[in-house]
Amino acid sequence: MNNNKPNKTKFYVTWSLVAMFLVSLTIALVMVSNYKKDDSKQRYKLTQIYKDVKDSDYQIDMKRGAAVYQNYCLQCHGQQAQGLRPYPALAGSETLQGPMLVPLKIVLHGIRGNRGIMPGYKNLNYLDITHVLNYVRNNFGNHAETIHPVETIKAKIDTLSRKTPYTRDELNSK
Ligand code: HEC
Question: At the fourth CATH level, which superfamily is domain 62-173?
């Protein structure tokens, strides 16, 4: 009789582990499918906006761009975009003035490097993201091609599944 006890314990332990595993698997699957559902809702919304904005005229709103800069960027990148240690300068930044997709990705989802972590601002309105980027790309001695709002929306759609800041390697490789 007594010999059976360890076997029974083993039985219960094994089955509770299996049960726990199945429960966590179910929870994980439900979470993943909700994530996907959120993305497809977002994608639908953005695609509608894309159609509306595609052929619209756009003028950089420097005043609005400056206001967004003061609220969201100045604390790290500085009044003159000179960079506040350890954060990098945006004045003279090649990355900022280079192909627009890279700075768009950085502002949408953030960047993580040896100077620290910049959070993403994907919840900001797409026009504000466009204005602030055009403002810093054409101020503080910088010059770069104007970003049209449709490019911001396109970048949002293309990076919908992104949930964490980029590394520099990821941005350089694409
Ligand atoms: C919390 C501080 C912080 C805030 C706020 C912040 N950034 Fe950054 N930013 C960083 C850090 C840190 C990096 C670089 C990370 C690294 O490479 O080590 C960076 C890098 C960048 C770069 C790339 C620069 C280069 O030369 O590589 C751009 C462009 C940029 N930020 C734009 C912005 C804009 C626009 C805003 C406001 C919407 C903003 N940042 C807000 C911290 C911040």
Answer: Cytochrome c-like domain (1.10.760.10)
